[in-house]
Structures are given as structure tokens and as C-alpha cells.
Amino acid sequence: MSDETGGNQGPMQWKFFRAGGFDQVRLDTGRALMSLGALDQKLWAALSCPTRGIELDQRTLDIIDFDKDGRIRAGEVIAVVEWAGNLLKHPDLLLRREDSLPLDEIDDSKPEGRAVLAAARRILAKSGKAGADTITLAEVAGVQEVFAANDFNGDGIVPAEIVDDPALRSVIEDVIACLGGEIDRGGLPGVSMDKVKAFFDAAEAYAAWAGKADEDADLNPVAGESEKAAEAVVAVAAKLDDWFTRCALASFDARAAGPLNRSEEDWAGLAGHLLSPESSELADFPLAAVSAGAELPLGPGLNPAWGSAMGRFRAEVVVPLLGERDTLSAEDWDGIKRRFAARAAWAKDMPEGPVGALGTERIKAILSADSRTAIEGLIAQDLALEAEATAIDSVDKLLRCCRDLAVLLNNFVAFRDFYTRKHKAVFQAGTLFIDGRSCDLCVRVEDPSKHAVIATLSRIYLVYCECRRRGVEDGERMYIAAAITDGDSDQLMIGRNGVFYDRKGADWDATIVHLIDHPISIRQSFWAPYKKLGKMIAQTVEKAAAARAKAADNQVTAAAVSPKLPLPGAAPAAPPAAAAPAAGSAPPAPPPPPFDAGRFAGIFAALGLAIGAIGTALASVVTGFLALPWWQIPLALLGALLAVSGPSMIIASFKLHQRHLGPILDANGWAVNTHARINIPFGTALTHLAKLPDGAQRSMKDPYAQKEPPWRSAVFAALVAGAVVLAWKLGWIAKLWAVVHK
């Protein structure tokens, strides 16, 4: 880390600016950058962030992520700043956010600086710009692409595709198949020195183990065919041990023979299946019929499920060791196991690993061809260009630092880009247009439900949108969380559609899939109680109207299906004879109870009393209100409004003053180190409501405007006239006249 004193310049005088409710460091000079390691990390805005999901060049982030854990940490930021600053004569160049660099700004007084300068000149020469005094990132990228496409590109990885010798190429393919390949600069899988060493060490160990079988006669009970014979023994050993043990138990107790041969119920259960020699149920039955002192039949009498395996056992083991025979005794089986015991112990010592899957013959062929020396020679030839490749990468890294490092620092050490709004912050994914507004604070999220668990602590109204791009392969999709910090939320609901523009200008179809409800503004909280009251009244009226409409429909339906009245002058129809209910039918419904006039009179009386009480209360309020002096009436109205809206506004004010950015970023994997507040003025700047452009002309004539009914004007005029008459009768106008003419 850099010394805080900065050489002979004296102690570093840090500069801070206040934004978001906390002090943020100003990184305006190269000296401030080089002294970053001495700045107390408690003053940093963030201590780590992910390398994915933020708007910064992915290759730059991967270069800074030295330990390749997918996160940028404070130590890695300090290290890359010091590396880049030490290669430049004036570290202030790191603040320009440009991808070009004058060659005379590279500090050639240091060995690494001289190497980078020489590499930059070679890059310019290969780009056809020899003698140029400035190098750009595009020129480096072009040379990198050409260099990476070469057969040998200095990364120490040799792909099989670049090897002309078929035999050697086949060995490299075997190494990749067994141990996996490594991707070289050109994007091809290949082998490195470590892979080659691991493969050939394993192959030599396997060959040494396999060679013991050629030297030890005990490991070859069947001359020339011991490997096949051992495989045949292993395939049936457990089943043979099982059968001979069953026979021994039958000799021990004759009663055991029946159960050991499986019961009739077991055979009956098997009889219902479609059987074949491959049936797993059949393979569970004994190898042959169990009886005391029996010998195992090697032909007819064997369980068909084991016929194939026992046939190989007979041909590969029994005949070579015991000669032709039709049965096998327990003593014969014990002798065979003793003869294969040494080979079984040897087999357990087989080296572990995937190399053995190639087989003994292939491994011996690879080792005998001395392929290792040839492959290591190719790798050494590739590594001879490592210095040149490293120098080219250093030029690329330095130019990326000149372009991207200031961006990272002003979104990591400080949130300067976010709070000054001169540049978009790296965590701002784009702009969401929805419900007549645009939202600038939009972040990418992986899972809205998981993100919302932490993000709700931000006290910000968030909408989570699923964004899709049509017309692209596989229907590209992502999720965003957008902060709503101005306007209202009346029309924001799950399923509402909008358009999201990412940082590259591409447009996405956005659909709300989740909401986090928090106050948006004081204005919204003021009107919220009245909107809720209006909504409740509207719902009540709608329910009442629907009930009345349903009742009317029921009356019409009942009238349509009831018997018709007799015509005038016609004889009344005789009442139908009572018919007995049909068998199994429901009994007739009981007649409706008679009208209880007394009960309904009580109900009407109670309603009258309630209405009278409410009317009396309202009259008292109105009388008291009108009895106030004229100057107290506006105060009384204001007090009534505050009584209704005040609690909502107070709660909203508390939440609006608690809004901060941290939980939104923490839910995405950031380690935000401070309470980055989003106050009301700044929050309003993050969401823009629709408004007409300056100087726009507006016509108020709407040909489709709703026409006002004439009675509304009459009612309004009557109310105004009544108010004037009431004020005159109460003496308010005279009092006001007297006050004005004093």
C-alpha cells in the first residue's frame, strides 16, 4: 500500500463531500488514488460487490477479481489502483475514463514499465501503426485476437487440434478425456504441464501395477487368460458362496432345505410375471435346487437367470483348471478361490483414477512411444511466448484501468456517480417507463421473491418486473427491481405492462410480477385516507346496486313462472287436488311465514332513532361550526383535514426519511458499508412524471369531453346563493365589512 505521506508532499489531505446522509471521499487527483490504501475502509461506501449484474465491462471486472471468486473486494481494488498508478508517470490519467493512452505517459524508469512500453510499440507495429504515439484498447484487442488464434500463444496450453502427428494428437485427446481439458486463449480445450504430469504419473503407476501380473505366477492361475478368468470368478463368486452355504445348512438341518429353496408363495408371486433369463426377480432365487451334500450342476438344473454368467465361469475357469465336468463340488469351489486369492488381493491394489479406464494395452502403448517428452516439448514451445503474452495482457489491463477504474472507484469507494447524477451508477441497469413516469433506479435481480425479503428494509416502493425481448433467440429474459419515488401507486398492480430500456438502449417488454408497498410521497399520503373512503363508498354503492338489481331480476323471474291470473268474467279455476308426493321425491316446501307487522315496525322505529341521532349530531356540528367567528372557520377546516390526513402523513414522513439504498444492493450481493439515504428531493429526481415540454401549445377543447348536465350548474348556483344568504343572516358579511372599513 502507498505511504500516506506521499513522499515529500506532506500528509494526504483528503477531501469529502456530503451526499446521501454520509461523507464520501473525493477521488479527484492521482495522489488521492495512490493513497487509497491508507484511507480508513470504514469511510468506503462499499467493501465488496459481485462481478456480474453490474454495468461495467466484464473482462475488466474479471481482471480485478484476482482470486476468481466472483466478487470484487477492497483489497483487490487497492492492488489494481497501485499497479496501474505505478506504471504511469501521472496517475491522474486514471481519472479520465478514456480507453487511449499516450506512450510517453508510461513510466519506463521501472522494468515492468519498460516491458509494457515495448509491448505497446509491438502492438502498434502489428496493427500497421508503427511510430504512433498513442495506443487504444481497440488496437490491443485486435492483436490479442490474432495472437490467441496462433497455434502457440504463450498460455502453456496445447490443444489437440494444433498437433499434426495423429498418434500424439490421440494421446492428448486421451489426457483430456481422462482428466479434463483447459481452455487456451483461442477457446480450444488443451493440456497444460500439470495435466500432462498428472496423467503420465498415473499411467506409470498403473503400468507398474499391471506389470506384477506378468512377473508373479500366483497372479496367473489360468495361463494367458487370467484376466478373463478373474472377471468370470468375480461375476459369480457371491452367488456360488450363497448356494454352497445353503446346501451346508440343509446338511446341518434337513428342515432348512424347504425354506432355503424359496416357498410356494414366492414361486406363485413369480408366476404372474413375464419371465425371461434377464428377469431381476428370477435372479434373486437360488443358483440351483438346494439339498444336503449336493454338487452344483454346471448345465441343466441351473437357474436360467445365471446361465450366461455360469457358462463363462465354466469355460474360463472350471475347464482350464479342473477339466470337463458337469458338476462342481464345495471342495472344488474352495480350491478355485484359493488359486484366485492372490490375484484378488492384487486387484484391490489397483491405482485409483480415470486413467485405468484406458486399459493396460493402451497405457503401455502410450508409455512406450515416449509421448510425454513430445507433449512437454510442445508446451515448452508455447511457454516461450509467455513473456510476450503477459506483456500484451499488461497493456490491455492498463488501458482498461484508464477507462474503467474511475468508474469503479466512484461506485465503490464512493457513490459519487449515483448522487451527482453526472453518470449512471454501475448498479443502475436502465430506465423503466410505466404508468406515465420513468424510473431511473432500476437494478437487475435474479429472484424477485428472494430479493424482496431484504430490499423491503429500504422503505422504498419497489416494483419487480419480468423483462422479455421478443424476436431474439430463446426469448431473452431478466428481472429488474425499479424504485417508484414520485407520483402515486393507484394504477400500479401485478400484471401492469411497461417498457424497460437497458443501458445499451435495447427495449424490453416489462410486466410487474411483484410489489413492495411503501409511501411514495407526502402528497400521496395526504390524499390516501380520502381515496380509501371514496373507494369504500363506491364499493358499498356497487354492492347495494348489485343486490337491488339481483332482487329485481328475481322478482321478474318469479312473475314469469307463476300461474297467470284469470281473465275478467271467467270462472275461477278449481284448486288442484292435493297429490301425494311421488316415491323418492322431496317433500313440498313449507309455505312462507306470514308477514309480522309488529316486528318490522320495531325495526323501522330503531332505524328512525338512529337516523335521528345521526341528524342531531350533524346538526350540532354544523351549528357549532357556523357559530365560530369567520376567521376561525378556515382553521377549523384545516384542523379537520389534519385530523384525517395527519396520521397517514406522519407515518409516511417517518418512512420517507428512512429510505436508503443499502438493502436494495445488499440483496444483490453487495456489501454496502454505509447508510446511503435517499431523501425526498433526491428521490423525486429518480422518478420523472409526464409533463408537457417547455413552450408547448395546449388546446383545452376536447371534442369527446363529457358534457356537464345543466342541473349541476343550477345546484352549484343555489349552493353559492344559500351560503351568501346564510352569511348575511348570521352577520358575517356585516362583520367583514366593518373590519375592512376600519
List its salient traits.
single chain, 742 residues, alpha+beta, 8-stranded antiparallel beta sheet, 11% strand, flat
How would you sum up this structure, described in words?
The chain is α+β, with helices and mostly antiparallel strands and 742 residues long. Among the domains are: 7-152 and 386-419, no CATH class; 158-214 and 365-383, no CATH class; 222-262 and 278-352, no CATH class; 427-518 and 659-689, no CATH class. It is 49% helix and 11% strand. It contains 25 helices and 20 strands. The chain has an 8-stranded antiparallel sheet. Strands 4-3-19 form a 3-stranded antiparallel sheet. Strand 8 and strand 9 form a beta hairpin. The radius of gyration is 46 Å and the shape is flat.
What's the topology here?
Blueprint: E1 16-19, E2 22-25, H1 30-34, E3 46-50, H2 58-64, E4 71-73, H3 74-86, E5 100-102, H4 111-126, E6 134-136, H5 137-149, E7 158-159, H6 166-179, E8 182-183, E9 189-191, H7 193-215, H8 226-252, H9 257-260, H10 264-271, H11 280-283, E10 296-297, H12 307-322, E11 327-328, H13 330-348, H14 360-368, H15 371-383, H16 386-409, H17 416-420, E12 430-434, E13 437-439, E14 442-445, H18 448-455, E15 461-468, E16 477-484, E17 497-502, E18 507-516, H19 522-561, H20 597-626, H21 632-657, H22 662-666, E19 671-672, H23 680-686, E20 687-689, H24 710-729, H25 732-740
Antiparallel strand pairs: 1-2, 3-4, 3-19, 5-6, 7-9, 8-9, 10-11, 12-13, 12-17, 13-20, 14-16, 15-16, 15-18, 17-18
